[in-house]
Amino acid sequence: MADAAQLNSDPDRLLFAYWVPNVSGGLVISKIAQRTNWDLASNLRYAAAAERSGFEYALTQIRFTASYGAANQHESVSFSQALLQGTTTLKVIAAILPGPWNPAVAAKQLASIDHYSGGRVAVNIVSGWFKGEFTAIGEWWLDHAERYRRSNEFIRCLRGIWTAPDDGDGFTFAGDFYRFRNYRLSPKPVQQPHPEIFQGGNSDDARANGAEVSDWYFMNGNDLEGFRAQIADVKARAARAGREAQVRFAVNGFVIVRETEAEAVRVLQEIQGKADADAVAAFASEVKHAGASTGNKTGMWATSTFNDLVQYNDGFKTKLIGTREQVAERIVLLKSLGVNLVLTAFLHYEDEIEQFGREVLPLVRQREAEGRGKDAALEIERTGDVYQKPAS
């Protein structure tokens, strides 16, 4: 396996992250056998393997209650801290849910963890899609637009708390959800100006947050037209906010690499064929309602099929399923569209994180060294057919 530092020496490189399986059931809602565990000891092995393999980020999941195949859930922030203590270069993105968390608590937690880890924590602000989770713990369930408006305030408060001058009056904010008066946080985070802030979604509200307040905008899997439209829209919104150069894009993709494309597709078909039908149907009902409740009816999962929803974030749509060469080519295409980070998930974490680092990541770096990933028209001509919308 190539040395991770050597693999990641180009400042213009595409970045790679992986979903942390800190909830049980893996990253698919399926009864297929998986070599993936949710305990800390296993996850420390996965993190070490990812770090050796060239991954630069990991994303923990936030769940408060059992749902849709995830019977057990470790808390995201403490789990992120544990992974950071077991690694040296990996940056861990802790998922936080406004409502259960107050920005003062989150800012303090994350600033301290940033010190413990030498500046390697980041945060993903999750606006929430699961009504039952909120009501179970006694939190108000706001409508879609209000949830994202609360997240917007939450992010502004995080950034304000972290960046308020030490010799000034502290952070003051008067919003509809959060209020601060001359609040001073000490110590501030190690990272300057602050830890990276991720946020995702597909609705107008999510895109506005991505453009106006986030450092990173997460996207679910999509077709070629969908990726291009989403990136162009968020970039245009960011430009109007004077932040076009500050917003980067990350995309979710489920990875299946096998010796032949036919073998990889058979694995996908087995995952979908052994789907936990009741759990997928319940998940579909919950998220379709969330998507339909958006102003433009295009929230996350609004157009997802049953088979799409077997992977939580439409990861099959990203088409990282095939031979190592096919997957590398598709990743380079994603880069040419404006994607800066690929968030991966796997069926067998025990083996496939290292397989990706050994077989796929060096091929991506080779193509980048050849100048690939910069000309969208060229990459679409070479690889784009796989992302076209299926004929209706």
TrEMBL record:
Gene Ontology molecular function, alphabetical: alkanesulfonate monooxygenase activity
Keyword terms: Flavoprotein, FMN, Monooxygenase, Oxidoreductase
Keyword check for Glycoprotein: no
Domain Luciferase-like: 38-340
InterPro entries the UniProt entry points to: DMSO2_SphG, Luciferase-like_dom, Luciferase-like_sf, SsuD_RutA_monooxygenase
Pfam families registered for this protein in UniProt: Bac_luciferase (PF00296)
Key word Oxidoreductase present: yes
Record-level GO BP terms: alkanesulfonate catabolic process
Signal peptide: none
Superkingdom of the source species: Eukaryota
Annotated protein name in UniProt: Luciferase-like domain-containing protein
Lineage: Eukaryota, Fungi, Dikarya, Ascomycota, Pezizomycotina
